[in-house]
Design goal:
Layout (H helix, E strand, L loop, with lengths): L72 H4 L12 H13 L2 H15 L3 H7 L1 H19 L19 H12 L6 H20 L10 H31 L3 H28 L9 H17 L4
Helix pairs in contact: 2-3, 2-8, 3-10, 4-10, 5-8, 5-10, 6-7, 7-8, 8-9, 8-10, 9-10
Length: 307
Amino acid sequence: MGTSQNSDGPGKGVPMVPPWTPPLPPIPPPPVSPQPPEPPALPEDHPDDGPPNQDNGPPDEGDEGDEVVRDPKTVSEAPAPIAPPGRFGGARRGLGDYARNGDRGNLRKSLREYVRHGYGGAKTTTARFGGTASIAGAFSSTLEMVADGTNQTGPGTLDPALRSGRSASEVMDALVEAVRPVDGTQDAEAERASIRGSLSDVLVRYPDADLLNLSAEQRAFAIERFTAMDVFHRYELDLGKTVQEKASSATVAVRRLKEIKDYIKECVSASFRKIAASDVRLTTGRISQVVTQALQDTFEVFEGYVE
């Protein structure tokens, strides 16, 4: 199972975030820090006090206690930006140079341009990966239900015979079908490849793992790897043809794509570690939110790469 590498990627004049992309869940707020003690109040008859409530003008924007109410429609229903001509030009140039010489600086340039101009910045790039966050939640739920023995009926049900000596490959195929059935879209193709790739990585990291009974730690690793794989597969779908055209041979092209995948894994893993360090945990019920945060952090890093 793989993704197409022959696409020229989306062109100009189309929404950067396709209308079928699931909306992003809210990003979990950071842990609340203890509030500093309030300063003591001034005496009621302090000689320097002016008359109370003398200023009847509008409150300053930063006054404490002010509450700014925004119409949610202005945020959630804002139309996606339209792609300009040559949106991936800079990303292709950097990637072409990387395909030829393997200089990681050229890869970083490509990733920067991919986020900045290919998708209009980290925020819009994250929105484009709404499907990744959504599928991550379904993937985590399926793995947990299978491990708990509660995935018995309804959509996504696994064949009980899978527990009777089936190969790891057969189990992976069944999990892919349960989490992300085929629907004919490139997004589905990429997400299915990402699920399978993440499960393969679980078996590399945890050779004795039972895919039908993964521990919480193993499930968290699967979600992290799925997220990284999906970023790579979207990048590959948009720009992979450049690697094939600019590498000196087919063998070099395959090696470059593996290097890109490994680099993206490193970056996404760093984002997940950053989130874990802030005490936001990859727990049931907030998988999609944490994945959204990891995606946004990753794309902000890409966008911030310097010349």
